[in-house]
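A brief tutorial aside. Many learners find it easier to grasp structure tokens once they have seen a single protein encoded end to end. The record that follows does exactly this for NADPH-dependent glutamate synthase beta subunit-like oxidoreductase. Read the sequence first, then the structure, and try to relate runs of similar tokens to stretches of the chain.
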Amino acid sequence: MQRTDISDPAYFHKVVDCQWACPAHTPVPEYIRLIAQGRHDEAYWVNWVSNVFPGVLGRTCDRPCEPACRRGRVEEKQAAKPEPVAICRLKRVAADNKSDEFRAMLPKPAARNGKRVACVGAGPASLAVARDLALEGYAVTVFDGEAKPGGFIRTQIPRFRLPERVIDEECGYILGLGVEWRSGQRIESMKALLGEGFDAVFVGCGAPRGRDLQLPGRQEAVENIHIGIDWLSSVSFGHVNSVQPRVIVLGGGNTAMDCCRSARRLGAASVTVAVRSGYAQMKASPWEKEDAEHEGIPILDFHVPLAFEHVDGKLTGMRFKKAQTGEEVVIPCDEVLIAVGQENSFPWIERDAGIAFDEHGLPVLDAKSFQSSLSHVFFGGDAAFGPKNIITAVAHGHEAAVSIDRMLHGEPVTQRPPPHVNLVSQKMGIHEWSYDNAITLDLRSKVPWAAAEKALASIKVEVELGFDAATAFKEAQRCLNCDVQTVFAPKLCIECDACVDICPMDCITFTADGPELRDRLNAPALNLDQAIYVEDGLKTGRVMAKDEDVCLHCGLCAERCPTGAWDMQKFLLVTTKAGAGCRDHATRKEVA
């Protein structure tokens, strides 16, 4: 077997499963430790640098980090329902508890460098680009048709999930960096925008068009049938403040869950969600489905919509076919919200502007750089590859900002310098570490909710109250500190097997070199997605093999080792952002 190259930035990054799964690669264990220490300003800063919107994401993120969390794997024999650390809600703890002094931590933008960048749309992708480039001295102008920034964060996420004050605050941090905000200016022509002499243009206008269902009765009963995302926007801006008594929501995604819960708060006596797929196949996040059902909203799966029933143009119900039985049923209703998906729409980009589109109406982009066929125009967020989520849009923004910065310095946009990686020993004594990893058996803490009679009476009352300090500390202690790595020095090892004896997960094996290593470990390594840490150079010719999959990072191997062959070293990944660090050496001197 070849020894593991732990200098490869991706190796220990993959071991920090939560960070690896996050599109923006937020250093999750780092900020959770800071929260446990009550250092909320610093925890918020770690998030702000990485994901730009900690308060927003702490309430609304799709949480790709949590299914990856190692905690859920090691609890499989301990709990009936193993659950990850509440990573997302801990992020909110940092946002809610940071001090007023946090503003002093915000960096000052560099002197203007003479380059102008336009951002179309004020959603998370555009604002991430604006933040990254404004800090580097670019003159960034953000255009949006609405009066306030935020894009779909503001228009499509209901206030009972995301208070407006949080959006205002975090968008304000970005505009406060000297970004020019052109509110109420919807771009109607790409050619006209290109004619204004911007050095680069970023398109982050989202996927603004909701899909319709052209079924029998659609036109006749049009007054009480609405496209979900348009309806949510109308609710957000106060144009809609009531609904009919009986509401059906069509669709199984997060937008459908927002629609049904909003309708419940606007006074509907009954709200029903109908989805053509099975319950398990719904695109909505599991917790979004649970929240809707907790509020008494039934979800009917395998219901294929056939027609809108009406009498003289007045909607009376919807006819469905049950996919499993073929039976047709009619569900009475007075109003229908269609939330069956979103589409990109670029009517303002002239087809002779030099930007190529594919057969699906999406721009033809380089997947790494987000550059279009017109070299100084870039796309990101939902506008790039279709609807995703906020954290993915932020990640797109970071990458597009790097591309713009490199392009405007005459460098290839598809090249990316590797991230900065650091490994620092956490040893403070023979048996003492700078971090606490006492493995608690506590199960995941529940986030408290506002009283139902209060929460359901208003569209603006925030449902989740967030963790208090004691619960936040308790939940933070469930984190296994997966970024503190077990690093092995074979030259110091005397092969006493003390580490093997003390390992609570049977992770460590000393064995003969050779093939089929996974089958010869003390505990079979069944997760092929996670590597085996292999070191050779032992005096007996054996190799040390450690299964990274279920390691608790408890440090017992390092504490027990009589020679210090094992060390606990904190891994820090600093991803590449726009600026001197993303450029080739020849151009870095320009900002020195």
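Self-check: The first helix runs from residue 9 to 15. If you spotted this yourself, you are ready for the next section.
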